[in-house]
Design a protein that fits this description.
heterodimer, A: 7-stranded mixed beta sheet, B: 3-stranded antiparallel beta sheet
Chain lengths: 114, 108
């Protein structure tokens, strides 16, 4: 049981390049999330998916797109990277069993845009 | 809009001293509150939630609706408690609203 996995762990991009961050969970959770973590700002929600086939914008969606490929996988795409997107990106999934609502996090992707 | 405030960016205490990490929230209903912790080079993980009223690793947090607070406390800090701590509340759409985090440093 790997929990939530993310690839890659590190990435350096040049301004204007594109990339996709991959996320998968093996806990059979319906809800999945993408956050960015910046110093002094906590975690900010980029996009989320309440269930397979649905996605919704979070607090900071501009410059990003997402795909909920199936129940396990939720990818985040940067079409044209900008230096302001330099951040650590976390994927999470949420348990709903027994009213738990705990979010389980991946190890993060540290992205630098030059 | 709901908001979570952690007033201290950095808190430094000596080993064995009491620790209190502050968290205040704004929410008109009955909030669901969490503390998450991120140890160095590890992923974020749930520390405790107010619903379960549990004590994890010696930490407790009590919901004070009058003061709209959910402070995290531990009577005797240990060096392994050094980490980043985040307070969060869940909104009506099951999204977490996060505080900015407090970096806790336990000095030997």
């Amino acid at each position: 049981n790997a929990g939530v996995t993310q690839t890659p762990k590190f990435q350096v991009l040049k301004t204007g390049q594109s990339m996709t961050l991959q996320c998968a969970q093996d806990m059979n959770h319906n809800s999945m999330y993408w956050y960015r973590q910046d110093p002094g700002m906590g975690l900010r929600l980029i996009y989320y998916s309440a269930s397979e086939g649905t996605t919704d914008k979070g607090e900071v969606p501009n410059g990003y797109n997402v795909s909920r490929l199936n129940k396990r996988e939720f990818s985040l795409r940067l079409e044209s990277a900008a230096p302001s997107q330099t951040s650590v990106y976390f994927c999470a999934s949420r348990s709903t069993s027994g009213g738990n609502n705990e979010q389980f996090f991946g190890p993060g992707t540290r992205l630098t845009v030059l | 809009a709901q908001r979570v405030t952690q007033p201290e960016k950095l808190l430094s205490v000596f080993k064995g001293a009491p620790v209190e990490l502050k968290c205040n929230y704004s929410y008109s209903g009955s909030p669901e509150l969490f503390w998450y912790v991120q140890y160095s080079r590890q992923r974020l993980q749930l520390l405790l939630r107010h619903i379960s009223r549990e004590s994890i690793k010696g930490f407790t947090a009590d919901l004070n609706k009058g003061e709209t607070s959910f402070h995290l406390k531990k009577p005797f800090a240990q060096e392994e408690d050094s980490a980043m701590y985040y307070c969060a509340t869940m909104d009506s759409n099951y999204q977490l609203i996060w505080g900015a985090g407090t970096k806790l440093i336990i000095k030997p």
